[in-house]
Amino acid sequence: MDKPLSHVLLIEDNPGDADLIRLRLVEAISDVEVNCVDRLTTGLDSIEKKQPSLVLLDLNLPDSKGAETFRKVLSRAPGTPVVILSGQDDQELASKAVHQGAQDYLVKGDFDGKQLARAMRYAMDRQALLTSLDMSRKQQLEFKDQFLSHVSHELRTPLTCIHQFVSILLDGLAGELKSEQRDHLETAMRSVNQLRHMIGDLLEATRAESGKVALSPRCMSIADAIRQAVAMFRASAERKRVGLEVALDVRTPLVYADPGRIVQVLTNLLDNAIKFTPPDGSVVVSTRLFETDKEFVYVSVSDTGRGISREGINLIFERLYQDANAIDDSRKGLGLGLYIAKQLVQRGGGRIWVESQAQQGSAFSFTVPVFSLDKLLVPVVSDGGKLRDVISLIKITLKHRSHVAVNWDGSQQQCLELIQSCLYTGRDLVMAAPSDGLNQDSFLVIASADMNGAAVIEKRISDQLHLEEEFKTACTLETSVREMQLPDAQAGESLEAVVHGIAEQIMHSPFMQNGNLSSASN
Amino acid sequence: MSKAKILIVDDDPDLRRGLNLRLRANHYDTAYATDGFSAIAMAQKEKPDLIILDIGLPAGDGFVVLDRLQQSAHLSSIPVIVLTARDPQFNRERTMKAGATAFLQKPADNDELLGVIRATLAPAWPGTMSHATN
Q1: A121 vs A106: CA distance, rounded Å
Q2: B130 pLDDT exceeds 70?
Q3: What is the domain range of residue B14?
Q4: Which of A165, A265, A425, A451 is most buried, judged by most C-beta within 10 A?
């Protein structure tokens, strides 16, 4: 906690104030080096070159004003203490910055050298304390993760044994079963499966908390994910005589999300909905679009269950929350499902909430970002604000043998990285495209190159894939290339509008119609 | 047609026994090994069509076994399904890189396990890796 206060960065545009502060600093603190700049951009550059031990910051500079100034400094130098220099008239702004993470503020003209030195010393100490707290929190999470990973391994081993032998009995491998015996064993098996999921959830919850859950967003069909999740619950809904319906808005666009995680969120919501809905009730999964919020698709899982209490609504997404009034088997479980769902939705850039009426039912809704090719396309189709003449589309389809499909999750990511490594970073673009076959993966490369350039990229990708033993034995590769002339920008048309047009053209090109990208958008 | 032979490598006697029962009921021949060292010896002796391999093993863990199998000219073509209680987040990629054909976490569904075994033992598709450009 006693780092030397050796290098102070003073960002202050008023030369009189700057000189005075520098003088006071040098008087009060021996061996201090003061670097004085009068613009935010120069200040940020200076931070880049040499991390200061403290920043003295005037919020209102010629090139940045107010809270924004502080945010920019904070994002460039996280962990460096910042003391705000405020004028008599903008103390409120300064105190806001303190709430956002600045260590202190001083009113210019109101302090002498000693006071300045003391404020800075305390700022350093507080920052050091915060940093070490944050570090120990991270260490704790890391430890918890390792601990749970270890524990769940140890729990899984005996559980596997129970699972194995109960299933051997159930499958009649040790002789015929009477119906009562079968009944008892099926009860045991249900508990085994429940335990299995709980063990998985424990780890998942810690990972969600420490931000370690791996998300691989891509262009995907939310409709497919919903159908997949609903299919998993058909049997259990029928057993309970609960209706299970899907109501999709016909305009539902493709979204940008991790398909596995979306299915996981839906699974958690559906599991709850069916659990809390009495026989002859119904559960509906729907998608909606709102004119006022075009960037998101709204997905809801609503039920005709008994609803959630008022205090429940506030707490339901918290860890370990369980409805105190639940009486039946709905009490079973760790109370982690919704917590995990919330973390996954938020990590994916969406939000999740619940609406409920007593005895009428509940509706859990979450939002998923709409896939926008526009944003990704800008650096591909333009160079310094000027539109290129031509780009190329390369479609790569990997058809793989069935047994590899089981492990494809990781490999798809690997494949994406491999293709990425063959591209010009920041200029060419690759994305995983939704696939209509279980045993194939499609990728689309959008390259800022003409047909000849694209052929080189295509060869590079094909060569790279052939080098990977795993792909060579597991896949057949198909590629096709198409050149695309870009339109001349019309006078008055913004780059944004042109890019949007190109994105539309790519999504609806006959080249894509043959493939899989468009098949999911109906 | 003779039965396919599966080598079970697991140090837990109960799990070995259970898996053995399950596989035999599905008309596979089985052999087993209890540690990493004997896994290689058994693979050489029994020449199995497939190996089901645990990771946490005495005398050379699953990764060591995968490595030795890969290095052996006679054994490297035997497909290996890794069946472990370990965390997929840290082990799936690693086992696949080390040469495994599939990764399943314990307890695995029997249907899933048998499905993967069948798919792995099925004859390979003709003409792997064709390169069509248009």
Answers
A1: 13
A2: no
A3: 5-121
A4: A265
